[in-house]
Amino acid sequence: MSALILTLLALQAPLDEGTFLLRQDTAEIGREAFRLAAGRGGGGWTLSSTVRFDRSRPIVVLNPILEIGADSLPASLDFSVADPREPLRILGQRSRGRFTVRLLGRLTERAREFPAPAPVVLLDDSVFVLYLAAAWHAGPSPVSVTAIFPRAGHREVLVVQDLGVEATTLHRDPASLRHVTVTGGPNQLVHLWLDRAGRLLRVAVPSRRLTAERAPAS
Questions:
Q1: Does pTM top 0.85 for this prediction?
Q2: What does the angle CA 12 – CA 41 – CA 2 come to, to the nearest 5 degrees?
């Protein structure tokens, strides 16, 4: 097999993939399948997710595809919202310290530009794997990050901090994982738990009684 083919296969293989079980209190409300791969052209990363809320009607499916540059900052976003009440496509692009968002509805089109000083992340209250990029900016001291929520149309300044390895639970079993906190905004506090390889295993939002926990590998 040629070196070129080996390189192409390596670029196509995911760096990480899995499924989060989404729960409110103890009730499962949906699932999020996600994939992290090398970015197009070999620089940066592509983070994609499909979130399906099917425990109530109508069924809503969120499908963001986020391109992240080699500088760990968001480069572009293509986000479809499959909602029979109001289907939506959201396109985003970073340029010169700003992030431009276009929202394309059935009959409408809107655009908004957000100041995006580095470090900046794109988040969504219902897409939990996006918090992985926030964890990338965390250090032992608090770090302020600009968080843009394209679907909700607002911008927040959040604080991320790496608290090191701490005791927690994963699927009700004791575990020692890297603990990162994200403070500020409407959620007030979000807990992120990662393994030694940097894989996001659990997200908890106490103010909303929500958790996203990685399903065990089959």
A1: yes
A2: 55
